[in-house]
Specification:
Three copies of one chain form a homotrimer.
Chain A: H1 10-33, H2 38-60, H3 66-69, H4 72-89, H5 97-121, H6 126-147, H7 162-168, H8 170-177, H9 182-203
Helix pairs in contact in A: 1-2, 1-5, 1-6, 2-4, 2-6, 5-6, 5-7, 5-9, 7-9, 8-9
């Protein structure tokens, strides 16, 4: 889970845990589809859950990482993977991609907002802070897909995902410009991102790509 | 574009912009071939253009990155991708790999020279500085290919590319040993690299690889 | 070769060189199977040999890297690759995966122990230190496989590898808790890992994975 400055309520902590869980489960799902062993399942789940925040912290040169400061998360990850392998091999219980769409959208909103705020607090330029927020929320999934030898789905599935976070996080810049309190900016940014993601899924809107007959010649 | 110490003329700035453009376009071309959506196009173009310099800065622990200090480059990248998608989908205009070979060779020369100089200025050993220069120029393309789920072309196309930069950047070590001015070393290194790359393309020289029947057994 | 604190004997230095060689050879073998050119062979061999320790140092924010402080290793790598390409193309000599299994197991034990000790010396929590040790020993191979466009074998071949290091490195935590001298903890950790790896290979034990009919639905 990307380290977050969102710390103003128990509700919000619960949402973070739910969202981190959704990210980890997306990693386990891909690991299962690729027939990885238990090591692969744990690593891919961990990358999906913690990879985006870790990459952001490397780029911003922030230490310690969230999962170093709160090492209990690593134990929780191992326990989660063990639990998933035990219960899901029994096949009484099935999880689908649809089931994690909403927790995943919450994670997209929360982690992109908190990542952007962290960069803003470090005096990064607006566009850099927005990119850092998007990286926080999105690059866990990118690392997950690269390790599983797929082109990252966020770059090719044409359903708006990173774009929602890219738009939503500008609310934080707006809040800063208006001297609004931080919690308001964070809430507005996360809510905007989640709403846009929901609208995109509901409407089936597709992002543009290139023509089937690409004009680029090899 | 990798951060550069080459700052001694307007001509040189123009060459840098041209070369960065060539790197970004190589990313867009690969993204188009892989049918990525607009998010993928922007990210892959950005990785191809800025990835090598960013990796070098992480390895050397240098901050801020070029694209943090000059955040306008990120806006330029977004504008470039938008422009490319608008104009190229219309298909009145075609770009080929051949068209970017020369700007790309200029980028190879410039960025490997500037990357090496940066490492030398940090008192790195000669061989480390040379590797840092090659990484600056080459790893943008490596990241581009990894994200697009290809073995990086620089590792397998047998046409000298990284090797030209590896040889050319030693001119900077020579210049330093002779106490020659920096601009002279940088120019000599870049010119050597570009010339070698040009000769390699012109002659069709192929790097050695392994025998078709590899002697390594699984 | 990951930077190591194991410095208490000539024997141990010899084991380190042997193990680093095994890691580099595993990179060359994969590069050969993928028909890479000489640049690819050198880079993949270098990633396999030095990648894990470099990633650990980036995560721990340690500088200089081992291969910056002892740049002669880079020359040795280049010489090794040149030598391998010259001799192995002649095909009088064959190397198999089996031939490097034991040096590789020694590397797993040594580098995971030394990586964990480095993290403990930086006051990292126990679980973080263990992960850093495993990353040191394992992620060179992960980078090698990612660059060669394969799912990392350590995540899917079901033969215990990372798991052996994960268990063995806890000996260092035990030694620390008992105030035992460092060399004893390092030796015990490395020996435990190597023994477990040996037992795993000898017994043919397979790690659990998911059911062939995965319960995860797309």
């Amino acid at each position: 889970m990307p380290h977050t400055v969102l710390n103003f309520s128990v509700l919000q902590t619960l949402v973070e845990i739910l969202a981190t869980l959704a990210f980890a489960i997306s990693g386990m799902m891909e690991a299962a589809r690729k027939r990885l062993d238990v090591v692969g399942v744990c690593v891919v789940a961990g990358m999906a859950a913690f990879g985006g925040g870790t990459l952001r912290d490397i780029l911003l040169d922030r230490r310690p990482f969230f999962w170093v400061q709160h090492a209990a998360w690593l134990w929780a990850l191992l326990a989660l993977c063990a639990l998933a392998m035990l219960t899901l091999r029994a096949r009484h219980f099935e999880l689908t991609e649809r089931a994690v769409l909403w927790p995943d959208a919450l994670g997209l909103g929360l982690f992109s907002a908190s990542g952007t705020q962290i960069a803003l607090d470090m005096q990064m330029p607006a566009i850099v802070a927005v990119f850092m927020g998007v990286i926080t929320a999105v690059f866990g999934g990118v690392l997950r897909d690269i390790v599983c030898n797929e082109i990252p789905s966020v770059f090719r599935d044409h359903r708006p995902y990173a774009v929602c976070a890219f738009i939503g996080t500008w609310m934080l810049e707006l809040a800063q410009a208006l001297n609004a309190p931080k919690w308001l900016g964070l809430t507005a940014a996360a809510a905007t991102t989640v709403t846009l993601r929901g609208l995109a899924l509901w409407s089936g809107y597709r992002l543009p790509g290139w023509d089937p007959d690409s004009p680029w010649k090899k």
